[in-house]
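are you around this afternoon, could really use another pair of eyes. what follows is a protein written twice so to speak, once as letters and once as C-alpha cells for the fold. i want to understand how the C-alpha cells follow from the sequence so walk me through it. anything you notice is useful, everything is just below.
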Amino acid sequence: MNETALLIAAALASGTPLVLAGLGLLLNEKAGVLNLGAEGMMLVAAIAGFAAAFHTGEAAVGFVAGAAAGAGMAAVFGLLVIWLNTNQYATGLALSLFGTGFSAFVGVSMVGKKLEDQTPNAVPLLSDIPFFGPAFFQLHPMVYAAMALAALMAWFLYRSRAGLVLRAVGESPAAAHALGYPVRRIRFLAVLVGGALCGVAGAFLSVVYAPLWVQGLVAGRGWIALALTAFATWRPARVLLGAYLFGGVTMMQFALQSAGVQIPSQLLAMLPYLATIVVLVLISRNPVWIRVNMPASLGKPFHPGG
C-alpha cells in the first residue's frame, strides 16, 4: 500500500513539467501559433534555472531564471513568426535544435554539480492521512501550483472576456482584426507566456526533479508536451489528466525494475514515447474530430490588411 502511494506521488511529480509545458503550448495554440521549439526552450531554461539556483542557493531564483530564459527564446520565435512571417514549423524546429546545442555548450561547467534535494512540503493534517497523505499531500509546492494553473487557465479561456478574445484570434484572426483587436500583439503575448511556462517546466526538472544538470536533461518531454495538447483536445483539464497519465507510464518503468520484472531496461525506457506514438496514431485516425477541436488558424500566418 505504501509503495503504491509513493508511486502515485512520483507520477504526479513526473507529470508536473508536462503540465506546465503543455499548458504553455496550449495557450500558444489557442492563439493560432504552433511552437515546435518546446524541447529547446525547456533545455535552455533548465540550465539557466540550475545555474541560478546553484549560485544563489535559492530554488525560487532558479524558477525565475528558467521562466525568463523560456520567455526570451519565445520572444525571438514570436518576432520571427508573427512579425517577419517566417514558417512556424521550420522556425520552431530551428529553435529546438538551437536550444539543444546552446544548452549543452553553456552547461559544460555545470555538469557534475548538484543541488540539495528539495524537501517536500507536507500539508498540515492532510499529510498524516494513511495512504492519501504520502500520495497527494507531501509534494513540492510547484506540483500544486501546476494543478491550480490548469484550473485558472480553464477559467481564463472559457469564462473571461480576454480568453474569449484569445480564442477568437486563434479561430479567425481576420475577423478579430476587423473588430479592432491587435491580433499580432495578442499572439505575441500568448507566445511569451507560453514560453515562460515551458521555462518553468525546464527549471522544475533541473532544480527540483533531478536536481542536477546533464546534457539532454529534458529527454524528449518537450515533444511529449506538444503531443499532449492534441491528446487533450486543447483543453486545460485534459492536459492535466494526460500529463499525469504520461508521468505514471514513466514511473512504471522504475516500479517494474524494482519489482524484479525481467524486461530489458531499454524497452522500459521507451514506454512514455511509445505511449505518445500510440496516442497520436489513435488521434490521426479521426480527422473530423481533429478539425472540430483544433483552433482553425493553428499554424497559419496572419497578415493585417493582406
In short: The chain has a mean pLDDT of 89. The radius of gyration is 19 Å. The chain has one domain: 2-293.
